[in-house]
Write a structure and sequence with these properties.
The structure is a homotetramer. By secondary structure, chain A is mostly helical. In chain A, about 60% of the residues lie in helices and about 0% in strands. Chain A has one domain: Up-down Bundle (Glycerol uptake facilitator protein). In chain A, helix 10 packs across helix 13. Chain A is globular and about 80 Å long. Chains in contact: A-B, A-D, B-C, C-D. Chains A, B, C, D: It is found in: Membrane.
Chain lengths: ~350, ~350, ~350, ~350
């Protein structure tokens, strides 16, 4: 969710014509290297951005589902002597996971670690669309692997909670004995209350609105702290802002749908849960809740937040709202011919400021 | 509350004569643009500062009233399985809201997001008075819209709390069933205890003093971290200081009047509550408490804090305490004629340091 | 506790000969001003450093004793509907107060806001001894005024707690009805347990050791983050480190003597309590506990921490451990004559790096 | 765990030939000093790095075991009037200890304060192997002394907890009266539950995996925030990131084995406990748990995390994954002869960027 320093993030347009030499050029730009030190480092260039996204989401999910497991499982008889955390701990865990996920990937891939962010940047900041599928795939895989590591870490405690290594069933009416709560709560959407307490007061519209609103707020802040003409976070500290931001979203907008605000954060762990024994029910629950609430709503909310920010605040050239019209282009061409440069800065010019 | 990077904030005096070209010049200063890329980007310049203030307060209120709602509503039977936060969470939420509000607006409008700050900067830092009404209007509107979004987000939970979608009544004697508590607490002044527990021990003088003191402390810190000759926050990190500051004010001075310390933060949500069914009572309560406690006291406290800081610490030219007298002006003119420049730096000179 | 940017702090030696022109030179150094804009700004130069220390401690005490009052008083029947904070809140409040106190004074006076720090810097960093008495007086006065403001802010709640506006008595055996607890805890040394629970297990040696150890740790960190050859905090962010540090000392070493670690933090509020009705008992308690535990122990602990840091880590010229011996001085003089400069950098030279 | 600014850390290779003049050169590089100001400052150069590691771990353990003691001991009857902290406090304390430990040592020794980090940096970042034993010895000694200071600080409260100054026995079945819990929990591995509750569900494999995973995550983040081509933490702020990171590991992965993730953090305090009366049992418990869980697992986990980061993300020359092969070396030599410099930057070249 931080785009500064991203080689292919906000500040560059990908022409598409020099596709194959892209990574090498990027590598050169950093190091003045024209040949690779060895074969592996050459091949690595083609996967490095995607591995960074994979790693970022993996780290996010290790912290996030980790804190969910620790706080809830520590209350189970026989697992721990006292509860190891609180709701505030959970907010901290997800905030920290987001920050660490971006710190390990920000300079390589831009640190999106969220398909909703990737799609919004492709729409409003010139992130190349052709990379979007690879980014999203890497992000979901990172979520799956992160959840698997946490599942392995808390395997025995989960067994105690569930009643045995082969019990992986859905929740029933009562809270005690609700297995799905553990499953969806930890590795899915965290909205245990929706399942266990049958909180029918949360209509589908409300669930959708809650994710939509929180993701819109997320994108407004993400775009602002990467906007050089607003109040950008200092280099290397965008993840600190994200830590505080996600802590706040968890504290303020987290109760109703557990603030997925990130399709990969939900889908990756959900895939894991279907693999370890919970089966297809994780997708069919509440008319395909998994699809419209933690996936579609964040993607659309991210679009809405980005649109608002760009329409009213952003002046950078990458945004569709600031595309030059015919008059501006004509003026620009005249200026180029006469040697005066007083047009809107073109892509990349911002780096020279 | 952060003035660094504000194009029209602390560091510039507005001459008034070149009023209409103001925004465009500012825009040029950033980008060397003499024509606008398109029509919308031209019109946007005239509203961008005000939209930034609107957006900043809106974000502040989404986090602030959001955390109020989440922590209190999650205790209502049928809403959640356990309380989703604590008093410390509330302090975090308001601190995070302030930080995020400034991060999304700081570089555009100066990130005041508080009429008391705007008025104090106009008095002591040369912020143009003619912009003050527009700023305050934008701030109050931002509070209104932010509260509306949170109200929509927690609509169903509020209904459960109130007893139904059409019940929006004032508090009665008992805590259970106190509807006004929810209302004022979440969207108003948060001082639920004053209403519900009939805490007559808090006299009007005490309420006024509490808001006055907290806002004076707020302004002393805000002016200090924007004072280049003191210990200014690094570029882009003033909001981090504000996060910690508001967290502290909530923890230390927040019990008695719920630290409004910001007229827009109270009036905006209060307007929303009168619209959604609580009516005029929100204004008539306790001899127009809404006016003298969360509006007048913060404005005067901000003046007092600024006056103390400027009288004893600040040496910048913008402050009335550092206006040159006749002798200094005469010296300055002589120096200008002789080519020596050893006078107090005039407005704008600071930018050349 | 932050020495960077302090005009007369660590990095300069005061020759003593140009004493009267000192402030003006300093002022000039910032602004190229040779005359003062007006009379007040001229007189202000002579008091500004001391006012900054006063203000810094005042802010520290407002947050610190404020959070003490809020957390404890909110538990009293009739004061609030629920507890407004926890032990962690108290740790946060004191950490935030320290950070804010340094942010408002750091660039003016060095932001010591602690007599133990001032004395240690005079001993080990060349801070002029002649300023030490004025600094300490200003710090204690700041503590007194800060406590008075908090006392005024919570006056009515304290009355409810004490049983009336004229009841200001010492603690008796039982916790309920212990008035001294409120007094010493909030405005004194916070070690309510020593008084109320008669925790004789805490011997005088243990009390002394606890303050000694915590202040030694404090100084090691303070010196490290101001040591340009170690890992200094970025400009403007030393208070952030102090926030985290004080939060940690409160969490880890705060239980036994309530981590005064600052003579002004204890003595200022203690003076206030003797004025508002508690009388001489606040000084006679436990064989003049007020003197040897929260005053002498921190001063000696600060010396010990500084000594350790300078003996093993610090290489700067200001420290007595790095004073050049005769051979080094002779080498230096030869080098000066021959035009080569390869001696230990003299005072002030560090600023040219 | 921060390697920036470390004179002998990541960015330099130690040739071994100029071993004795090493420190002096380093000293010169900072200050242009060719002779030492006095005899002590000359001798100090030979031990300064090791003292910094000692001091860093000592500070870490003071905060870490300090918060353990405070939170648990304050619940014992007669020790305090209320619990002074919570599980979240403990997470804060260890995070703060880590940050402060690095802040006081980062610029001198690199701030490893963890043998697993030291070994990983020797393997993957060219940290000289010949310094590794000295570093580890200093780290373990720092842990021992830090634990001794905390033990002295809480001596009387521990006596109340244990039942007397000469009672230092192992835990029995019941929680009340479990002495080993205090011992191992505070000064050992914190995994009180393993001992007291006989949590046999935590198999040896699970214990090992938990430490392995947490340390791998630690190293991925540590390497990322010191990687200039990723998103490095700003100078002086790496400890802030570590504070957040350790807070997160405690919240998310801390329940099962108490996240030793640092052999010195466990072994140092464990040595102290065997000295003060707990004897050999601290080593024989559970088939030498002390060796394979908090020592071997973190070392191997650190290797795994570093290997992953370097294999897929890191492009710096120091890593074995980026060693130039024969072709690259030949190309480099040709380039050197022809004056063109387009090879991978050699060691030290990075500093010129």
């Amino acid at each position: 969710m931080s785009m500064s320093k991203a080689p292919d993030g906000m500040s560059t347009h990908d022409s598409g014509s020099k596709d194959e030499s892209h990574f090498i050029e990027d590598y050169e730009g950093h190091d003045n290297i024209t040949i690779h030190p060895n074969a592996w480092s050459k091949y690595r260039l083609y996967i490095r951005e995607y591995v960074a996204e994979f790693l970022g989401v993996c780290i996010l999910i290790i912290f996030g589902t980790g804190v969910d497991c620790q706080v809830v499982l520590s209350t189970v008889t026989g697992v721990a002597s006292s509860q190891k955390g609180s709701y505030l701990s959970i907010s901290f865990g997800w905030g920290i996971g987001t920050a660490m996920g971006v710190w390990v990937s920000g300079g390589i891939s831009g640190g999106h670690i969220n398909p909703a962010v990737t799609i919004a940047l492709a729409t409003y900041r010139g992130f190349p669309w052709k990379k979007v599928p690879g980014y999203i795939l890497a992000q979901v895989l990172g979520g799956l692997v992160g959840a698997a590591l946490v599942y392995a870490n808390y395997y025995h405690a989960i067994n105690i909670f569930e009643g045995g290594p082969h019990v992986r069933t859905l929740a029933t009416a009562s809270l005690s004995g609700s297995l799905l709560m553990l499953f969806v709560s930890f590795f899915g959407s965290r909205n245990q209350d929706l399942l266990v307490l049958k909180l029918d007061y949360m209509t589908a519209v409300s669930c959708f609105f809650s994710e939509f609103l929180a993701t819109a707020v997320l994108l407004v802040v993400v775009l602002a702290i990467n906007d050089k003409k607003n109040m950008p976070a200092p280099p290397g500290l965008a993840p600190l802002v994200l830590f505080i931001l996600i802590l706040g979203i968890g504290a303020s907008l987290g109760m109703e749908t557990a603030y997925a605000i990130n399709p990969a954060r939900d889908l990756g762990p959900r895939l894991l849960t279907s693999m370890v024994g919970y089966g297809k029910q994780v997708y069919t629950f509440r008319n395909h809740y998994w699809l419209w609430c933690p996936i579609i709503a964040p993607i659309l909310g991210a679009q809405a937040g980005s649109m608002f920010y760009d329409a009213f605040i952003y002046t950078g050239e990458e945004s569709p709202f600031n595309r030059p019209n015919a008059a501006a282009r004509a003026h620009h061409e005249r200026a180029m011919r006469t040697g005066r440069r007083n047009m809107p800065a073109g892509p990349g010019a911002e780096d020279n400021v």
